[in-house]
Automatic annotation (TrEMBL):
Enzyme class: transferase
Cross-referenced SUPFAM superfamilies: D-aminoacid aminotransferase-like PLP-dependent enzymes
Keyword check for Amino-acid biosynthesis: yes
GO-annotated molecular function: branched-chain-amino-acid transaminase activity
Role: Acts on leucine, isoleucine and valine.
Signal sequence, renumbered to the chain: none
Protein's GO biological process: amino acid biosynthetic process; branched-chain amino acid biosynthetic process
InterPro entries: Aminotrans_IV, Aminotransferase-like, BCAT-like_C, BCAT-like_N, Class-IV_PLP-Dep_Aminotrnsfr
GO cellular component: cytosol
Stated name of the protein: Probable branched-chain-amino-acid aminotransferase
EC numbers, comma separated: 2.6.1.42
Organism: Martelella mediterranea
Record CDD domains: D-AAT_like
Amino acid sequence: RIVYLNGAFLPENEAHISIFDRGFLFGDGIYEVTAVLDGKLVDSDLHMTRLKRSVREIGGELPISTDEIVAIERKLIAENALNEGVVYLQYTRGAEDRDFLYSEDLPPTLLLFTQQKTIAHAASAEKGIRVKTVPDQRWARRDIKSICLLPQVMAKRTAKAEGCGEAWMLDGDYVTEGASSTAYVMTRDGRIITRGNSQVTLPGCTRLAILDLAREADLKIEERPFTLEEAMDAQEIFLTSASNFIAPIVEVDGQAIGTGEPGPVYRRLRQLYIEHAR
Ligand code: PDD
């Protein structure tokens, strides 16, 4: 694979980062994951807008423009002949001798690489995903796409141990979001409910696009927190993320949801999203 690191395109085994990188020592960095379908970036503008926001919120500055970043992403897609998968971007504060405080002129580290992944025809899109709930043990600024993902790594491990493909994080009775996805329920009377954006969750790019498509399709949407009880009683539930687009959830904590099969509203939205992505 050819990767991008601080201005250079290199084979992955020639790309090296300092042991003093603040991303490594402090988790002082942010990231983005953008899907690639048919060799094209999906919802690239939304991801670039969120990237700029995350960098601004941690008091950083991108070393190049987002137009230049998109050009790098396209070059990586071409160089690696990537048809379907993701482009991963990581921005860290840079490398210098360890200290909580950093030099104001420290050049950041910017890394991008591609990963192959089946998304449009993923098995989970047909089979559905089982979810395990866990307490949301993350920090209070979940709107920043921080590289500090230990709570999510632990949540996914717990989920996997119970045969589940995603963890839903709970704040008391309320579902905040998935460990790496936005959470939705559809009530028995057809209302799609997902949390509004705030510091409590990551503002999903796929979420924005899906809600637009759902509105165009005249589906009813309520942006508000929902409880685990509402999820258990839902007609359908699903998740969205760049790496899954939209996927059906068929079971929560061992209990089947709705019919226990991927539902028609999910199928409709998935089709609309794939058309939008193409
Ligand atoms: N995760 N919520 C969390 C906590 C996430 O980590 C993600 C994405 C989302 C969905 O956001 P988007 O639709 O913009 O991908 C919601 C990425 C895919 C990851 O960490 O790999």
